[in-house]
Amino acid sequence: MMKSKTIVIVMLLALTAWGLSACEGKATTAPVNENGKTDNRSETQPGFTVLAEKLKVPWALDFDKNTAYITERGGTIVKLEGKKLTREAVELKKPLFAEGEGGLLGFALAADFPQSKRAYAYHTYKENDAVVNRVVVLEHTNKGWAEVQSLLEGIPGYFNHNGGRIALGPDGKLYVTTGDSDQPKLAQDLNSLAGKILRLNVDGSVPKDNPFPGSYVYSYGHRNPQGIAWNKAGEMYSTEHGPSGDPGGHDEVNRIIAGGNYGWPDIIGDAEKEGMIVPLYHTGDKALAPSGAAFDDNGKLLFAALRGEGLFRFDPQTNGVVQVLSGQGRMRDVKVKDGQVYILTNNTDGRGTPSKEDDRLLLLNGYKD
Known about the structure:
Blueprint: H1 2-19, E1 47-52, E2 58-64, E3 67-72, E4 76-81, E5 84-91, E6 104-109, H2 113-116, E7 118-127, E8 130-141, E9 144-156, E10 166-168, E11 174-177, E12 196-200, E13 217-220, E14 225-230, E15 236-240, E16 252-256, E17 281-282, E18 290-295, E19 301-305, E20 310-315, E21 320-326, E22 331-337, E23 340-345, E24 361-365
Parallel strand pairs: 5-9
Antiparallel strand pairs: 1-24, 2-3, 3-4, 4-5, 6-7, 7-8, 8-9, 10-11, 11-12, 12-13, 14-15, 15-16, 16-17, 18-19, 19-20, 20-21, 22-23, 23-24
């Protein structure tokens, strides 16, 4: 009798774990196969090399040749040259607000970084008691990093749903993801910068060929996009967190087109509404909380998952997803450089279960599509 009760309790706990849904909360998820179905196959995972450890809530990763730069949400940037790790201060003109999901988030080195020593960053701050975000230009000096220009301010923020990814597109423009700041209706408001993917000139001006004249908005109807990447054809893809609560899950992979409306909060999953774009892939009721994304050399989209605790691969030909790596906890960012795959774990953000070595920068050994 006692044994039967124990089995029932275990089953209930397992079902509860699957049912819970929150922005970046912790859960155990099974892999899904190339057709988007749950896949319980025991596949051989790639090994990895630990390049850095004891990182402090890392968020974004970029490279200058063989030197890695990693933002930490508390307001520092780690410089990694070979095995030498240097934690560098960041001097901002408006105080960093690093509570909830905010802090020093997105980061991208300028195209001319070797000469200019400049980079773009996204960070959370407070103004008139409101949580907001801004995009700034940082310059690297022998003392660390210092803000030299503000490109865009007053992006709506909150304790969560701040978006935060920054990337330079193949067109040389700066792309920025913003969350809905926990105000879903703003995602449909073209007069608000919340719940959008923005497109800027690198001097902070609005590109003349943006889809909405005079506006930074490139696409809208997003809840909390945290990954953007381009394939070899120059097509842009994004990963996005779906809703919390009931229904939960419904995280998305989208192909982004200029002026596209991606439906939040009016539609989720396979729901349709005139003028709104249905995702290429969504997770259904299960949540992965996808974050940073990058295309591999075979044209498939890799994305780091927080709640899904792993690295996943999306196939644009089939719209299916498989899990590539698990067992290392939450993952925040992924980069592909010279065919090699680098991953940032994110177990020290208060929602993971960190080991004494966390967080870490991992290099996959022998990654194969």
